[in-house]
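ok trying this again, last paste got cut off
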Amino acid sequence: MNVGFIGTGSMGSVLIQAFIKSNALNPEQILITNRTITKAELLAEMYPGIQLLHSVQELAVHSDILFLCVKPLEYRALLDTIAPFVYPEQIVVSITSPVLIRHLESKLPSKVAKVIPSITNYERSGATLCMYGSLMSDKDKELLESLLCHISAPVRIEEQHTRVTSDISSIGPAFMAFFVEQLVQSAVEFTSISRDEANRLASEMLLGTGLLLTSGGFSPETLQQRVSVPGGITAKALQLLLHRTEGVFLDVIKATHDKYNEDLEKVEEMMQ
């Protein structure tokens, strides 16, 4: 099975490297190209065996599964270019949230899917959000998820929930990194602890917290209750956080939805 990637930017390269690191794919099974070809050349040098192509048409022809990893406003031109070269048995996968399944199905004769990966997939963890077009059979879905499960937990979602689920699984790591950064910065400013030591402690804490919330059987609520003693230090800190952040996360969700709707409007216009 050959798996092609059009676009080797941030998420495209994360997927390629994760598939290779997890042994889901051998480099020889991977075909890549990129608008700025030097980016693709660097990946090909890093992983000997990757097939570097200079034509999206040629890549489309030779890929059993084809990942489209380009920016939303680049899709119309790309779909128009590859449409004559993809075929009905092929699975074309978009990783871009505002490009909808119906947009892809209206332009391509192939089976189509949409997956939203996460930077956490680079370390073979986190979720991959999966949505499927009308031509995808159960066997097709299982094939794609059997590939994704090497690097993540594939989770099937309704396309209408793309934005909010992405906020949690894909943008969430940036949110968590922001909180860790703020915690570390405050610790360094208020005490004599070194930044390296604080970073290490905070990072290990975040890893352990993730395990407690998954395999450990805790929910966010029960974990707070377990750590917090009424009238204790943790309880006082949590009360301060609750007071200071009231309404902030709702504003964050609203902001991401506003940007998504803005991007979707542009994509709708482009696809007409």
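PB: full thing came through this time. The mean pLDDT is 96.
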